[in-house]
Design a protein that fits this description.
alpha/beta; four-stranded antiparallel β-sheet; single chain; eight-stranded parallel barrel; 22 helices
Length: about 675
């Protein structure tokens, strides 16, 4: 390793009008995409980005990342926002700064590779709507999956940034399959494809400072495009890694504004700006302007999202990412899956199984979507495998991976896993070796026929083609054919304040407030002790017009958990007193029962097909009246964005189907009946 340092000390100057440095470090801001994706489950809304967009446009960023990744999915699924409108809107505010997006190669913004016609149209429309820079990566680092999108990017005159997904199979860069030679070769491949810049994409924060120095120094000597570093803070190393990369001559780094920084996100921008003052790599940014942006974010934006922060641990770093070479969001998804399936006690078994599954599936990088593919299959193995049989439930995406639909894995897939996954696979039992999209049929025309007039433009068509179930549901709401649920509507700062006030009252024991204008308590009031969750409430009940009215409630000492009502002795009235008003208050409506809020389902006496996990119905492969053999696929459900084919446990006839595509199901729901 050379100790040559590219940073030179110069005269210190704190003025915002200070002379431009010899080789200013370029910065891409990720707050408006990866920042809120990492910290707030991608729930950032366009209306909150507008508040700081014009101020950020004046800073001098190399680019701001505002789109792609999980935003396209989350916006239409959870926020009732049109993803395309976000780009168009922000483009009006960022007049000087290029807009960047994260493109998953042939997978675009989804979880699988899409056909060439859809990929080409997506890129074209993205440029038309305002995207300038396409940060393009492939989960397997198989650049055959770049061919179609790169051709489209170049033909549109946009900037093609090619990524090398950084991963390891051991704690440090060394002798494993992911070594220095591997990364140099990948960078050369990207240069040969015409990359305008090359990004080292470290989604798990695995790149250590001294490994970064050696890697960046080598890449700067081997290839000509700008070198860009993207390294998450997850493990706590990224600020040190940034500093060594800067010393090695890195051209661009990714950071976030302080309110969107750290934890599973990225290092903060502000310390970088201050650290490089008085050096040849000074960013030239005005720290006072950054402070004003942060104040706006802290006061007017972050309060709406702080409830989404992961507060399950005090530490801001997660060392498990180093132990398992997996990004934080993957580990969080594993915990979420297990929690939803009432199996969180299996988490250590999942961690133990994870490297084994990764190795059996070709030692692939753990980024989107391969992190979900490996993670979901690991959970399935732990929960459903037996001593006699592993890979009992194989997701559709694992089968696609084994067939080659995602590309070439870094190492060969285990032969036994390959054989089992491809048994009776619909495309064939021999893996392909060609570019994956070559065998994919065009998708646009069939999607156009399916969605019909509901898609009013090509942007709507693309949305449906990428996400048929949730995309159609969103379009129904967008055009007023379905009501927009309250759960996807934005909240205001006033609503946040009300929630905060309620939490304060709850902590102070003042959540139950006395009701104003209580009626007078008559001599016939009766007293009851009501036990709820280990607490005893003394409740007074006065018979008024035949409807019991609570006249008071007092908290007693904690009691054993039970829910009972024991009347205290009281005199029996000779006659009920007349009501004080001729128009007594109507009784409050009874809460809806479970059967009222959820459609009744057929159970029958046959063999049920049960949901092994919470999810969404994708499709039924069988209809009522169809005969099935044991092992035949009856229904496909999506869980954690992975599809699971559920087989018939017995031969017979389908006598009931209880749900429709697009409907959510809980664990152990009866999806169908076989008799």
């Amino acid at each position: 390793m050379t100790d040559h340092n590219e940073v030179k000390k110069i005269e210190m100057n704190y003025s915002k009008e200070r002379p431009k440095a010899e080789n200013p470090l370029k910065i891409q801001d990720l707050s408006l995409r990866d920042g809120h994706q990492s910290l707030f489950a991608t729930r950032g809304r366009t209306e909150d980005m507008i508040l700081v967009a014009e101020q950020m446009d004046e800073i001098g960023f190399w680019a701001v990342e505002v789109w792609g990744g999980a935003t396209f999915d989350t916006m239409h699924r959870y926020l009732n926002e049109d993803p395309w409108q976000r780009v168009r809107t922000l483009k009006r505010y960022f007049k000087k700064t290029p807009l960047s997006m994260l493109l998953r190669g042939q997978s675009l913004v989804g979880q699988r590779n899409y056909a060439d016609d859809l990929a080409e149209l997506f890129v074209k429309k993205a440029v038309e709507n305002g995207v300038d820079i396409f940060r393009t990566f492939d989960a397997l680092n198989d650049y055959r999956n770049f061919e179609t999108v790169v051709s489209a990017i170049k033909s549109c005159g946009a900037h093609f940034q090619g990524c090398v997904c950084y991963t390891l199979t051991e704690p440090r860069l060394g002798n494993g399959v992911y070594n220095l030679e591997y990364y140099v070769k990948k960078a050369r491949d990207l240069e040969a494809m015409g990359a305008d810049s090359i990004c080292i994409k470290d989604v798990a924060g695995l790149l250590s400072p001294y490994d970064a120095f050696e890697l960046i120094k080598t890449l700067k000597a081997e290839v000509k495009p700008l070198i860009h570093l993207h390294s998450h803070f997850t493990t706590g190393m990224s600020p040190m890694t940034h500093l060594k990369a800067i010393e090695a001559g890195i051209d661009i780094i990714d950071t976030c504004m302080a309110p969107y920084a750290y934890r599973a996100s990225h290092a903060a921008l502000e310390p970088v700006v201050m650290s490089l003052l008085g050096t040849s790599r000074d960013t030239g940014f005005d720290i006072d302007a950054l402070t004003r942006i942060n104040e706006t974010l802290e006061k007017e934006v972050i309060p709406k999202y702080k409830h989404l922060l992961d507060d399950s641990r005090v530490s801001q770093i997660d060392i498990k990412a180093l132990l398992y070479q997996a990004p934080d969001y993957m580990l969080a998804n594993l915990e979420k899956q297990l929690r939803e399936m009432d199996a969180l006690d299996k988490i250590n078994e999942v961690y133990k199984e994870l490297p084994r599954v990764r190795k059996e599936l070709g030692q692939i990088p753990l980024v989107t979507p391969t992190s979900r593919i490996v993670g979901t299959q690991t959970v399935n193995n732990v929960l459903f495998d037996t001593k006699e049989e592993r890979y009992k439930i194989i997701t559709a995406q694992v089968k696609d991976l084994c067939y080659g639909l995602y590309g070439q894995t870094t190492a060969p897939i285990d032969s036994q896993v390959l054989k089992k996954a491809l048994k009776d696979y619909e495309r064939g039992e021999e893996p392909i070796t060609c570019r994956p999209a070559q065998i994919l049929a065009p998708e646009l025309e069939s999607a156009r026929e399916e969605i019909g007039s509901l898609a009013v433009d090509e942007e709507d068509l693309i949305l449906y083609a990428l996400f048929p179930v949730t995309g159609k549901k969103y379009l129904m709401q967008k055009y007023g054919k379905e009501q927009v649920p309250d759960a996807v509507k934005p909240i205001t700062l006033e609503e946040v304040k009300k929630q905060d006030d309620m939490i304060k009252k709850a902590k102070a024991g003042k959540l139950i407030e006395p009701v104003a204008d209580l009626p007078e308590k008559s001599e016939f009031a009766r007293t009851f002790n009501v036990f709820v969750d280990g607490e005893c409430f003394e409740v007074g009940v006065d018979e008024v017009g035949g409807s019991p009215v609570i006249s008071y409630a007092a908290l007693a000492a904690a009691m054993p958990a039970a829910v009972t009502a024991a009347p205290a002795p009281a005199a029996t009235p000779a006659a009920a007193p007349a009501p004080k008003s001729s128009s007594p208050k109507p009784a409050a409506p009874a809460p809806k029962s479970k059967s009222e809020t959820k459609p009744a389902v057929a159970t029958g006496s046959g063999t049920p097909v049960l949901a092994p996990m919470p999810g969404v119905i994708v499709k039924y492969e069988k209809n009522v009246g169809d005969t099935v053999n044991a092992g035949d696929t009856v229904v496909v459900i999506e869980a954690m964005k992975m599809e699971n084919a559920l087989p018939a446990a017995a031969a017979g006839t389908i006598t009931a189907i209880n749900y429709k595509p697009g409907e959510s199901v809980a664990k152990d729901d009866v999806l169908a009946i076989i008799e």
